[in-house]
Design goal:
The structure is a homodimer of 118-residue chains. The radius of gyration of chain A is 17 Å and the shape is elongated. In chain A, strands 1-3-2 form a 3-stranded antiparallel β-sheet. Chain A has 5 helices and 3 strands; from the N terminus they run ααβααββα. Chain A is an alpha+beta fold. Chain A has a domain of 77 residues: Arc Repressor Mutant, subunit A (Orthogonal Bundle). The relative contact order of chain A is 0.14. At the A-B interface, α1, α2 and α5 of A face α1, α2 and α5 of B. The structure holds a DNA duplex (30 and 30 nucleotides). Chains A, B: This is Metalloregulator ArsR/SmtB family transcription factor. Chains A, B: InterPro entries: ArsR-like_HTH (IPR011991), HTH_ArsR_DNA-bd_dom (IPR001845), Metal_resp_trans_reg (IPR051011), WH-like_DNA-bd_sf (IPR036388), WH_DNA-bd_sf (IPR036390).
DNA sequence: TCGATATTTCGATATTTATAGAATTATTGG
DNA sequence: CCAATAATTCTATAAATATCGAAATATCGA
């Protein structure tokens, strides 16, 4: 994964409606959701939703697949995992990440509070 | 972590220079790097770098701390972990995530062996 | 206090992005 | 083929963001 696609993915997620849509798709799992269902659930006009979905697709975060008249979108989990890996790559310069540094990807629970770092 | 701060964090990372700066800070570990060092390493004017660093700080992705004339920035790993957790929350609607669905958050661990994580 | 260093704030400009109605394209059922 | 449905592309406008030089703000050493 190169910087360019990573930036596109992050930019795609950095928007209220797209983040919400992406999360709905994550929760929907492999079955995905139709564009219209997303549009209606989120209260976003169809043309706007389409614009947002194309950003997500362009960033490879979601896949699309026609099913009759609908177009079903689904989250690409591999892309998300690659994104996370990219951002924490070579964490702490190779020094083993201890709980002390806090640099333990995915080890910390979301709310672990760590205040002062030397 | 609420949607608002998540979007700010994603937007902060969705920019060439800021993503590069953040990655340098991740690699630098708890010791961090001075604003000037980041500016010079990335070939970005000081005023621009300052603008970008304030975006990262505003999103709580980095911390800053004055050390004599320099201001040392360092990555906040807890914030990054929270970010990832938010995006994969309630993945597949609670159905156990198998390798088949690909929906296994944090399956890729950058540099350290993962002990058993719940 | 003065001069040098490190960084941030200001200001003006250029670029990118979001929005949503209208028109267009694709698919299905009768 | 036609009407209905589902989605996308087009178009215009509004809003947010990036850029970087110049000026301002801290801090230090002599």
């Amino acid at each position: 994964m190169d910087a360019e696609i990573v930036i596109r993915a992050l930019a795609a997620l950095a928007q209220e409606h797209r983040l919400a849509a992406y999360r709905l798709l994550v929760q929907a799992g492999p079955e995905g959701m139709a564009a219209g269902a997303l549009s209606e659930t989120l209260g976003v006009p169809a043309s706007s939703m389409s614009f947002h979905l194309s950003q997500l697709a362009n960033a490879r975060l979601v896949q699309q697949q026609r099913q009759s008249r609908s177009i079903i979108y689904s989250a690409d989990f591999a892309a998300m995992n690659a994104l996370m890996a990219y951002m924490t790559e070579n964490c702490c310069g190779g020094v083993p990440c201890t709980a002390d540094t806090g640099c333990t990807p995915a080890a910390a629970s979301p709310s672990s509070a760590r205040k002062d770092v030397a």
